[in-house]
Amino acid sequence: MSKDAILSLSNVTHDFGGRRVITGRSPTIRAVEDVSFDVRKGDILGIVGESGSGKTTLAKIMLGLLPPTQGEVLLDGTPIIEMSRKRIAERIQFIFQDPYSSLNPRQSVGQIVGYPLYLRGQENAAERDRKARELLDIVGLSSRFFDAYPSQMSGGQRQRVAIARALITRPDLLICDEPTSALDVSVQSQVLNLLLELREEFGLTYVMVSHNMAVIQHMTTRVAVMFLGRIVEMDTSEKVFGTPQHPYTRLLLNSTLSVNQGAGVPDLNVDAEARHAMRDHPSYVSQRV
Amino acid sequence: MLLNVQNLNVMIPTQGGPLHAVQDVSFSVSKGETLCIVGESGCGKSVTALSLLGLLPKSAKRSASRMTFDGQDMITMSDKQIRALRGNRLSMIFQEPMTALNPLHTLGRQLTDVYMAHRRGNREAARQRAVYLLERVGIAKAAERLGQYPHELSGGLRQRVVIAMALMCEPELIVADEPTTALDVTIQAELLRLLAELQKSMGLGMIMITHDLGLVSRIADRVVVMYAGQVIENALAKELFENPKHPYTRALLGSVPDPSHPRMQPLPSIPGTVPSLVQKMEGCHFRDRCAFASEECRVPIPLVGVGAEHVARCIKTGAQAPNARSTAP
Ligand SMILES: Nc1ncnc2c1ncn2[C@@H]1O[C@H](COP(=O)(O)OP(=O)(O)OP(=O)(O)O)[C@@H](O)[C@H]1O
Ligand SMILES: Nc1ncnc2c1ncn2[C@@H]1O[C@H](COP(=O)(O)OP(=O)(O)OP(=O)(O)O)[C@@H](O)[C@H]1O
Ligand code: SF4
Ligand SMILES: [Mg+2]
Ligand SMILES: [Mg+2]
């Protein structure tokens, strides 16, 4: 573990399943397999990969929400599973993939955004409201949303609420699972610019899961590529995008749809044989990063 | 023409007053055609889609001067007639897969239920079609997945199930609201090719709502750009990308991150936020954020022809606007 690591994962594996069904037990699914890396202060670590490859599971493990089946996660050197939710929340906040189910439908936007402050219990109600309004302003939502409920908002508006809530306690590490996929490009630019600004201002560290390769390329210092639960490639962002080593990384890059009118959708032709070859291909995890 | 919508308006009552989510929106889709609807979050794309399928909140008021599906008048259709169309000849893929999936039922049950509701036939035939479609949308070992519940799937797997569900009854028109944002780009490419194939072989029409302009540039025949409840530009895809006229469209195209942009430096964006839809705004809705705004923009701006099959809602669509890929004005 390097000395400036905030989070350190060693040999993390997670299995789902073994659920009791009529015919015995359902098969287990290995969602994450033998993942080790450090998240260091100032990093913007991008996690990309196949859907179902374990990215969200890994994010939940990093947040201490899900105890891994094997392996260990250290937050500032302490095993995260031994820490209280409150202590973890002071250091790490998150923005989840889906802005629909991650917001409490019975709370107003003002309450949702101020909720982490309420949990922390340091401010009074008026102070919480003032800070919540300030954050709504930062994420570009007009204060008329303060008393609105999530059901009255569009997807992108809800995602901005989630971002405001995550930033209100000024955490050190923000784990974002698809933070901008519900946003249009102009708002996406605003949010990405905001994340970069906040990083400068508060020395924030990010872990960013995304399917949008252009966003990952623009935003990250390091990238981990996941395939079938494993990290198949990890290196600096320049290396991964400039000289991809693993065939799955190359496939991802070839699948990206940049603006190119009339070019159509590439035919990737990934047959079973190609998938086997990718599965059996050795991983490239750079030791320098 | 498969779908024809003229002067669609949707008003949703809210505490603050009536919210005009969709204002005089018109578009049409032909057999085999892909229409993409793009625009800022909250501009009324999903509400437009929901109003086509009779899925608006109960309190909402919809009006239109014309709304036809395959020649049938949809305005006067009963709820029962709309339900008979929905999931059958007209399918919707929702923005958020969990709204389309019942958390209490297995995938197999849900997929076969749609089929049984509209098609005569036995459950075994339905099951076979479900397995076939799940495999087509890239879910391996589909037969084993049929016994799973939605919460046991990743976001992307769930969305693929929803796409398979939309295809169960061989629809003629699919309305897809952000169907691929939860998917990895490889699966996205495969699904788009699958949809394109179905379009060719079955003449499937498609309305694709998305924020992803890269995707739009690859699949759209025609593009409708919305802003604050209104259509502000409508053109054939080639024309829109080569010759965008409205300042908002130009700024939107300029905000797309691409590798030529210096890494970790601020990306171009459009300053300000969308106006509230609660009061009806007089004049151009983009005015507060537009670099070319002037007094003349305070009166209602009509959609005017600016080229062949190309309309835009701006009085200054001429020379002074910067070209598409440059920074917002
Ligand atoms: N609660 C659960 N019970 C059983 N299996 C699960 C559960 N949650 C996730 N899984 C399985 O674990 C694997 C990894 O899921 P995960 O959500 O981490 O993927 P992901 O990489 O985030 O995918 P996506 O990009 O689609 O969001 C998948 O096969 C999924 O079906
Ligand atoms: N049930 C509702 N009650 C009140 N207002 C609503 C409701 N549903 C949507 N709205 C409002 O209607 C407007 C249009 O919403 P819509 O969901 O169509 O946006 P959108 O263009 O799909 O945005 P996004 O890209 O973020 O999904 C928004 O201002 C939203 O706040
Ligand atoms: S009508 Fe005026 S304010 Fe509106 S987009 Fe055109 S120039 Fe800008
Ligand atoms: Mg996920
Ligand atoms: Mg929407």
UniProtKB/TrEMBL annotation, chain A:
Record's subcellular location: Cell inner membrane
Record bears the keyword Repeat: no
Family affiliation: Belongs to the ABC transporter superfamily.
Protein name in UniProt: ABC transporter ATP-binding protein
UniProt keyword Cytoplasm, yes or no: no
Keywords noted in UniProt: ATP-binding, Nucleotide-binding, Transport
Range of residues in the leader sequence: none
Topology versus the membrane: Peripheral membrane protein
Origin: domain of life: Bacteria
Organism: Paracoccus alkanivorans
UniProtKB/TrEMBL annotation, chain B:
Signal sequence region: none
Any one GO biological process: transmembrane transport
Record's keyword terms, sorted: ATP-binding, Cell membrane, Membrane, Nucleotide-binding, Transport
SMART domains in the cross-refs: AAA
GO cellular-component term (any): plasma membrane
Localization terms from the record: Cell inner membrane
SUPFAM superfamilies in the record: P-loop containing nucleoside triphosphate hydrolases
Chief place where the protein resides: membrane
Molecular function GO labels: ATP binding; ATP hydrolysis activity
UniProt membrane topology term: Peripheral membrane protein
Keyword field contains Aminoacyl-tRNA synthetase: no
Residue ranges occupied by any ABC transporter domain in the UniProt entry: 3-253
Family indicated by similarity: Belongs to the ABC transporter superfamily.
PANTHER family xref list: DIPEPTIDE TRANSPORT ATP-BINDING PROTEIN DPPD, OLIGOPEPTIDE TRANSPORT ATP-BINDING PROTEIN APPD
Protein name: ABC transporter ATP-binding protein
Organism: Paracoccus alkanivorans
